[in-house]
Design brief:
Helices cover about 35% and strands about 0% of the residues. With about 325 residues, the chain is mainly alpha-helical. The protein folds into two domains: about 180 residues, Orthogonal Bundle (Cytochrome Bc1 Complex, Chain D, domain 2), CATH 1.10.760; about 140 residues, Cytochrome Bc1 Complex, Chain D, domain 2 (Orthogonal Bundle), CATH 1.10.760.
Length: about 325
């Protein structure tokens, strides 16, 4: 089948597919490199475009949850920075997740996935919540059979990949959509590109603190404001004992309590914060780090009480809000 015919069939296959609540789906983000981000990992091509379009529909369709009550978008809500307003998201049958749903912005730049990094690729990551009994609770074999039994979705898979639904193509479609969720072109990016007036005095002072005395850049580094590494900040530690964190994946005792550094892009949208959703707002986050985190046996040596005034704290929050604003897309609420 040639490309024009395949594209036409795909468009026809998607007729009638909508979100789980019947609402029209948000548009598929364009393939572009926003100011401040490096080139995207996956170059645009017709096959990837079709895969991302199918992934968009699957992301918002509750067909992938055991009781058809939840979609990926139930916990990764677009208006919330593709995160969740709850500390722990609701799963099927009244279950609750064990960790806060992180933002999906700029996961195209990720090197590992989940708070503990247990998935090495985005294709691995997107399938795990489907089968997790605390999340969507649907065995992957059952998910594939359900997709094959759905006339419209089966047609969409065949139009996209030339085959009926299977695990690999399900993963490819969802991952292709998530890779399109990019955020950049903030006032901070424009300031760094030479537009001095893009930031207010407070925001510039916050950026200066972030890059100097605050030392925030040591973990929230690079274009995505994350080093993609794991650190023990003491979040979740009780009586000096941390949760397993990264150690559950590596088996290394020194990794106990270490969790992935999240991106700061779009951060105003994704409260509450930390892997356990224990900090309600940015002011609480800044206060936590101002105090040097929470003491425990594996506390990261980068963590120590900060020499910070109330004005510094205010300016740092102003900078983080500026980093969340974009010429197009999410804005600071």
């Amino acid at each position: 089948m040639d490309r024009p015919a395949l594209g036409t069939l795909l468009a026809l296959a998607f007729v009638g597919l909508r979100g789980g609540d019947g609402r029209e789906l948000p548009p598929l983000p364009a393939v572009e490199r926003p100011l401040g981000l490096p080139a995207l990992a996956t170059p645009p091509d017709p096959d990837e475009e079709r895969a991302a379009e199918l992934g968009r529909h699957l992301f918002f369709d509750p067909v992938l949850s055991a009781d058809r009550s939840l979609a990926c978008a139930s916990c990764h809500v677009p208006e919330r920075g593709f995160a969740d307003a709850a500390a722990f998201s609701a799963g099927v049958g009244g279950a609750r997740t064990l960790r806060n749903a992180p933002s999906l912005f700029n996961r195209a730049l990720g090197t590992s996935f989940f708070w503990d990094g247990r998935a090495a690729t985005l294709e691995q990551q997107v399938l795990m919540p489907i089968a997790d009994p605390r999340e969507m609770g649907l065995a992957l074999d059952d998910a594939v059979e359900r997709l094959r039994a759905d006339t419209e979705l089966r047609a969409a898979f065949e139009a996209t990949f030339g085959t009926p639904p299977d695990r690999d193509e399900l993963a490819r479609a969802l991952a292709a959509y998530v890779r399109r969720l990019v955020l950049g072109d903030s006032p901070v990016d424009r300031f760094r590109a030479g537009a001095f007036d893009a930031l207010s005095d407070e925001e510039r002072a916050g950026l200066w603190f972030y890059e100097s005395r605050g030392g925030c850049w040591r973990c929230h580094a690079g274009a995505n404001f994350s080093d993609e590494d794991f650190h023990n900040t003491g979040v979740g530690a009780r009586d000096g004992v941390s949760e397993e964190g990264r150690a559950a994946v590596t088996g290394v005792p020194e990794d106990r309590g270490r969790f992935k550094t999240p991106t700061l892009r779009g951060v105003t949208l994704s409260a509450p914060y930390m892997h356990d959703g224990s900090l309600a707002d940015l002011e609480a986050v800044v206060a936590f780090y101002r105090g040097g985190g929470r003491a425990n046996a594996n506390l990261d040596p980068l963590l120590a009480p900060l020499e910070m005034t109330d004005a510094d704290a205010h300016n740092l929050v102003a900078f983080l809000r500026a980093l969340s604003r974009s010429a197009e897309g999410p804005t600071d609420r």
